[in-house]
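Anyone else keep sequences and structure tokens together like this?

Example one:
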Amino acid sequence: DAYVKKAKTFAPVAKAVRALVKKTVAGCEEYVSPWKTPAFDSNGPLCVFIVQREHVTLAFLRGAILPDPGGLLEGTGKGVRHVKLRTVADVKRPGVKKLIAAAARLNRKDPASGRMIGMNKRRKQKES
């Protein structure tokens, strides 16, 4: 909540991203990543969003292997791909919801390694 409030101009976009992820992936876990940004987990790391100066970045940690028929994903890294969102209308594009759903399906079918983003540490904390 505090991160979204500090987003100022992009607070509505950040709120919309957060709501869309929670609605699309029922039961996903929201947490603060090691980089101090909101992140989501569903059978492994799902996505993270970062408020930047000119947009909100929605990054998929396994984005390089996600289907992207709408051509929304950007990036050239080994695994991570992202979408730049400047308005609430950008968040509401059907392709964004499809990417979130595809990331959740991928995690159900082939869960990510426990070494990603401190997953094992968070799991131990939840069990305690």
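And example two:
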Amino acid sequence: MKVNIQAVNFDADAKLIDFTQNRIEKLEQFYNKIINVDVYLKVQKTSTPENKIAEVRVFVPGDDMVVKKTCKTFEQCIDECASSLERQLKKRKEKLATH
């Protein structure tokens, strides 16, 4: 599985990239046919503190899943995206096992 991380309109520090890489790699525990993962980290220019956006796109054979979250920190966004993707990948695995 290959993980591509792109920071849009800002420079991501090594700590954030490592956290994102490690959290996304854990998705392979739930579904081992993941081909590629694209992570887009963006900062929205608003007055609210919840201006960090993480968009994660997971490519699996025959389909791809996209999850987008807006939070106060990128770590929280990545964590919520990964949790959502874990549920989706578990469902997909169960669905394929019944066929």
